[in-house]
Amino acid sequence: MIIWIASYPKSGNTWIRSFLSSYIYNQGKKFDFDDLLKIRAFPSDREINFLKKKFGIYKFTDMAKHWEMFQKDIIKNQKYVFLKTHNAAIKIDNNVFANLNNCIGLIYIIRDPRDVVLSYSSHLNLNPEKTFEIMQRDDLIEKTNDNNDRTLITSWINHYNSWKHFPKEKILIKYEDLIDSPNETFLKLIKFLNKIINTKIDNKLIEKTINNVSFDKLQKLENQSGFSENRSLSKNHKFFKTGKKRQWIQELDKDLILKLNKYFEKELKELNYN
């Protein structure tokens, strides 16, 4: 069965995967980016290549028709499997992205959308104004390197709401809590997994793992060996850039901040982002 690790881009998904792959599969040993292979993305290159072989250039509706088949194949003979995604929890025609029969839980990572605008703009190599426009599009699709459709991200608001109402056991993790209170936040995550898949709660291992995958260490590891998942459109972009919160206050234009505050007003209030 699937445990989804879902988020909008640039919201802390890789940090959560780093922690879980180290804690669950590597028992807190020295972390390497290869450990992330134990928690694969969906859809991955495997699914993309299947569609390319079948259709050549395919449409997103072709991807959607195969979601359930792909997921059933992934969980075959496995008690549980973590899948990372930036896809919204949507339905296209009669095709549901996260079929309830195939999953047991959800980890949803969220970040102040004003900081997402800033981080995502660097990733896309666009200015923040243009990035904000993109984050309002419900047709926002992440492409493969050869311009095939990979993930239907949609707008930030739609993405959040689509997973917020997901009718399975779920936990919401705030990026800011990973910075302010990592021990408490990761412990909360492990307790959630203990509830749904009986993951062992080991406080010493949690502390050791947090140290192994601290943002500083992930940043240093990327500087030393690169990071293959970095799909930034900017040649000099670092995936693990700063790992800070509330940078939007200093770095975004005041007029843009007013627009963001108005557009995200309901969600900012709901999530206690002031």
The CATH topology is Rossmann fold
In terms of quaternary structure, what is this? single chain
CATH top level class name: Alpha Beta
Largest sheet, if any? 4 strands, parallel
- Which strand order does the major sheet show? 2-1-5-8
N-end to C-end Cα span: 37 Å
Average predicted local confidence, pLDDT: 89
Structure report:
It is a single chain. The chain is built from 13 helices and eight strands. It is α/β, with parallel strands linked by helices. The chain has one domain (2-270): P-loop containing nucleotide triphosphate hydrolases (Rossmann fold), CATH 3.40.50. The strands form three sheets. It has a four-stranded parallel sheet with strand order 2-1-5-8, with helices on both faces. A two-stranded antiparallel sheet has the order 3-4. Helix 4 (113-124) packs across helix 5 (128-134). Mean pLDDT is 89; it is low at 230-235.
